[in-house]
């Protein structure tokens, strides 16, 4: 009986925690978000065999995911030498083993 009461208390606590922290994120409308809009534009403009280079979204893959394009995200604090290598010769950074 004690185990059932503890299980019910833990379950109720988890439901309250989930509702207070995550329910609003699940129900939110992110279609107006800049990254989502950029991804939709990239999907329209970039052919599926091309890649995307995203600067300034840290290492987030949101643009690549919603645009359904392979890509590379570069953080703003990446050393300039590495960033220059990407700009000079991007192909190795987008290579696939297909």
Can you give a write-up of this model?
- With 98 residues, this protein is mostly helical.
- The protein has two domains: 1-30; 32-98, no CATH class.
- 57% of the residues lie in helices and 8% in strands.
- Strands 1-2 form a two-stranded parallel ribbon.
- The longest helix is centred in the first third of the chain and has 20 residues, at 2-21.
- The mean pLDDT is 89.
Note the main attributes of this structure.
mainly alpha; 8% strand; single chain; 2 domains; 57% helix; 98 residues
The biggest beta sheet is recorded as: 2 strands, parallel
Q: Please give the number of β-strands.
A: 2
Distance between the terminal alpha carbons, to the nearest Å? Answer: 58 Å
| Helix vs. strand class | mainly alpha
Number of domains: 2
Give the overall shape: elongated
* Mean pLDDT score: 89
Q: Which strand-content bin applies to the residues?
A: 5-15%
User: How are the strands of the largest sheet arranged?
Assistant: 1-2
Rounded radius of gyration (Å): 21 Å
Measured as a percent range, the helix fraction is: 55-70%
Number of helices: 6
Low-confidence stretches: none
What is the element string, with H for helices and E for strands? HHHEHEHH
